[in-house]
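It is worth pausing here to work through a concrete case rather than discussing structure prediction in the abstract. The textbook approach is simple: state the sequence, then state the predicted structure, then interpret. We follow exactly that order.
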Amino acid sequence: MSSRSLLAATLLAVTAALAPSPSYAHTDQWQRVGTGITEGVSGLAVLTSRGDHVEALSVIDNKKPGQERTRRIVLDDGRVTAVRPMTWQGETPVDLEAVTRVPNRPGEYVAVTSGGRAFHVRVRADVVTVVAAFDLPPHDPQDNMESFALKAVGSRLAAVWADRGAGLRPTTLYSAYFSLQDHRFGPVTTVEYDTGAHEETVRHASDIAIAPDGSLLVSSAVDPGDNGPFSSSLREIGRLAPRKDTVGVDLARRPRLLGTFDGRKIEAVALLRDGDVLLGTDDENDGGWVRQR
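Step two, the predicted structure:
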């Protein structure tokens, strides 16, 4: 299937909830994968996706020693069939907010904390082992990183990451080429984005996913506190723009709204091989939820 066809399938899947078909009703529901404030979903990456069977790596934004950092979430035909804790080996992260698969490197991922500490990890069974820990390039001290995504561009890796922004403060989208060999970034480009809503509780970018054709999907959330009420949205906001020495993000003149979600704080967006989207939430005191669309 072409990249354009895959993107079309993704957008169709994301917007299906606006006019759901009975045959997909069982997959289009939020399902609990964690209870309480220490079991939310702050990032998702696909481990395996074969037909109707999906396994995902979930990261949790816990901060204290002894608390879980990662879980395996298993879905069959869109239904959660298992949730298992995974063992983290290596430097212990504080406040993981994002995780992405490393293209063309099976079993390898990069997870990132809110403070910009990053971890190249390898997953074997239910063990997550740190290969290397490194820092994102220098950024505004006010930044609270909530997203990180990688995409293969020819023989290189393009990275996009973002501060979440808040209220009148837009998110800053950062992008650069990234070397997995030395965990260094090339020249960084930046662009600001906001949803157009400027209430203090708005988080303009809570996660990022890059579609096969380079289109950028960004979730946003309203977060008034540990008990909500939350709401979220998903938009296609632009496109990855590879250049000779760096890679940028070209924002769309009119970002395309793909869906709105009352009562949930989406912090994780992962694209599945068949074009579906896996969404995850960190609903604080109400725990973590996922939804396959």
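Step three, interpretation. The longest helix spans residues 3-15. The radius of gyration is 17 Å.
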